[in-house]
Amino acid sequence: MKFMNIKNSFKALTYAAYAVAVCSAFVNPASAQSVEQLQQLRERAQQSQSGAATPSVSPLSISTQRTLPGATASANTMGQFSTQPRNGVNLPGEPTIDTVFPAQAPMENPPFAANLFIGGFESERSSGLNDNYLIAPGDKISIWLWGAVNFSDVVTVDNQGNIFIPNIGPIRIANTPAGSVNQTVTSKIRQVYTNDVNVYVNLLTSTPVSLYVSGPVLRPGQYAGLASDSVLYYLKRAGGIDFQRGSFRQIDIVRNGKVVASADLYAFFRSGKLPEISFKDGDTILVHPIGNTIVVETGARNSFTFEFLNEELNGGVVNYFARPGEFASHASVSGIRNNKQFARYVSVNEFASLKLSAGDTVEYIADHEPQIYRINVAGAFAGASQVMVDKGARLIDVLDHIEADTTLSDTQNIYLLRESVAVKQKEIIEEGLQRLERSMYTAPISSTGEGAIRAQEAQLVADFITRARQVEPQGRVVVSENGEIANILLEPNDTIVIPEVTDLIHVGGEVLLPQSVVFNPDATTEDYVAWAGGFTERAEDERILIVRKNGNVTFTSVNDSFLSSNDSKLEPGDQIIVLPAIDTKILQAVKDITQIVYQIAIAANVATD
Fold first, then answer.
1. Sign (positive/negative) of CA torsion 568, 572, 573, 579?
2. Among 49, 510, 533, 559, which residue's Cβ finds the most Cβ atoms within 10 Å?
3. Domain harbouring 149, CATH code
4. Measured distance CA(441)–CA(455) in Å, rounded
5. Residue 227 lies in a domain
């Protein structure tokens, strides 16, 4: 009986402890225990009653705590607030630039000086104090006196701009440059302590100021910083000037409703000038709407969108800021005058005095008539690889100024590489390829089986066309024949090729072992092909291409009866190209493909499958 009374008393004490814990959690939230701790107390009470550790589910076991995205849930952080910066992370539902700012297409010519707002220089501000910083109320100054009088203290500049030193009185230092604080305070102290007193004064901290950035900036609002910070610092904090709407030329600092300073970012960009001002609480940096704009599209070092004042709308100012290239000779101007289209094409000198209008577009163009050509020299020669010649120069005139060793240079087989010829060869090949495409995809089909065959053949031809379009012609021009050289008119960037004296015959294309073979005056085309391993299965042995050393082209075959003639006789340095045979089962496209293969082989000295 006594044992039962003790047991009942223990149960009553356990329930009382549990009730006290629960009541304490509601009466004193600061000392509230966690959900897990309350659950443990309840389980202990049940264990003492039933004698078994049986888990149970109750509303207390359900967590109702919610965390924001990116936050870390922890039972020990209930009721606490984060003191770390968000580092640009937006809260759910918080407005962003994408939701409140109008969508804008990228500008081909961004504003001049727009790169002032690239990077994070606003976060790299020096923690040191600028000597030009003007003392403001709230700044802390350290003062030491030693000698006949000992005194040390840190004083604060009061709202009246003064500091107070015992036995000295108030000293006004508001708007005093930081570099002059020591001299100002020391001179005041020495008016009282004239002898045997040493003085040291130092500005410890400066008071942050809070000002507003308004106008066409990305994030207008209130920002904090030092009074000595620049206009650029606060503009960058506000996201920079809106390129489409904001002015880089008209930026005012407003204090008590009056403009106390103005900034022109063009002046800073060109000469490093910014207004020298010490900001105060409540100042406003006001960015005005964008003014007159002139777009410089191409031909200048600074191809940007420029903003000019009314008196600056002339070509001379545009030349100053845009800096046209050295070879720019003319300027093209287009715009609107009196609701009518306006266009002018003038020299750069005439453009300097031309009056412009807002919205004009300017292009600088190098429109000099070439009077001097650059001619390249390649192959076996001595001296410079480039020769500058006057307009109208001919090949023989240039060859007279090129040094060549007659024992190593084959001056009888000179040829040219010309860009305009390469372009024309590319056009001819492209025309043939387009004709081939049309013939393949527009061929009539008489049955379903034939259609399937034509589809497979069309895919093969399409692969051939893709490879053929990748070939780049050389633009070779034959200018020598039988030791005589044609005195043709040269074009800009021509390349004069002087072949080397060689004893080799080059064999390539559809042979098993493409290689170079030593020239044998008694050997035939069939011999050289045999020495290169013979024909492949796809070789066309009836029409073999021979590219002469001077660039000329002839055709032969292994059974050619004219090999002994002067036209078909092989010479050292010649190139034998065995072309691929075209499968005659590819409907009517055989002729077109064969023609294209020949054109590519002649234009680029390659055999295309």
1. positive
2. 510
3. 3.30.1950.10
4. 9
5. yes
Which of residues 180, 205, 230 is at a domain's end?
A: 205
CATH of the domain at 344: 3.10.20
Residue 29 lies in a domain: no
Same-domain pairing of 603 and 507 = yes
Mean pLDDT value across residues 501-511: 89
Q: What is the pLDDT of residue 176?
A: 83
Of 7 and 117, the structure prediction assigns the larger pLDDT to 117
Q: Indicate the number of domains in the chain.
A: 4
Q: What is the pLDDT of residue 552?
A: 85
Tell me the H-state helices in 28-150. 35-50, 97-100
- Residue 228 sits in the same domain as residue 258: yes
Q: Residue 24's pLDDT band (boundaries 50, 70, 90)?
A: very low
Clarify whether residues 320 and 355 are in a common domain.
yes
If DSSP states are collapsed to H, E and C, what string results for 509-537?
A: ECECCCEEEECCCCCCHHHHHHHCCCECC
Q: Summarize pLDDT for 99-113 with one digit per residue, the tens.
A: 676 666 677 888 898
Q: Is residue 106 a part of any domain in this protein?
A: no
Extract the tokens encoding 103: 């969508």
Q: Which of 159, 186, 205 is the last residue of a domain?
A: 205
Are 508 and 545 in the same domain? yes
Both 152 and 185 in one domain: the answer is yes
Q: Which is it for the CA torsion 104, 105, 109, 110, positive or negative?
A: positive
CB hemisphere CA count around 9 (13 angstroms) = 6
Same domain, 584 and 601: yes
Residue-number span of the structural domain to which 337 is assigned? 292-365
- Straight-line distance from the first to the last Cα atom of the chain, in angstroms, rounded to the nearest whole number: 111
Residue type present at position 456: Q
pLDDT computed for residue 35 by the predictor: 53
CA dist., res. 443 & res. 462, Å (int): 14
Q: Is the pLDDT assigned to residue 57 strictly greater than 50? A: no
- pLDDT at 309 exceeding the cut of 80: yes
Q: What is the pLDDT of residues 555-565, one digit of tens each?
A: 887 765 444 44
Neighbours of 322 (CB within 10 A): 23
Determine the average pLDDT of the residues in 306-310. 93
Domain CATH code at residue 526: 3.10.560.10
C-beta separation of 89 from 70 below 8 A = yes
pLDDT tier for residue 269 given thresholds of 50, 70 and 90: confident
Tell me, yes or no, whether 279 and 356 share the same domain: no
Determine the pLDDT at residue 252: 95
- pTM comes to 0.52
Separation between Cα atoms, residue 10 and residue 45, nearest integer Å: 10
Cβ-contact 226, 139 below 8 angstroms: no
CA-to-CA distance for 254 and 286, rounded, in angstroms?
7
Residue 128, burial from CB neighbour count under 10 angstroms (0-12, 13-18, 19+): exposed
Please report, as a single letter, which amino acid is at residue 473: P
| Contact yes or no for 141/163 (Cβ under 8 A) | yes
Which tokens hold the place of 14?
């356990």
Among residues 85, 58, 55, 57, the alpha carbon closest in space to that of 70 is found at 85
> CA 311 to CA 291: how far, in whole Å?
12
Q: How far apart are CA 124 and CA 521, in angstroms?
A: 80
SS3 of the chain: helix, strand, coil, percent, to 5: 30, 25, 45
Within-domain flag for 63: no
220, 276: one domain: yes
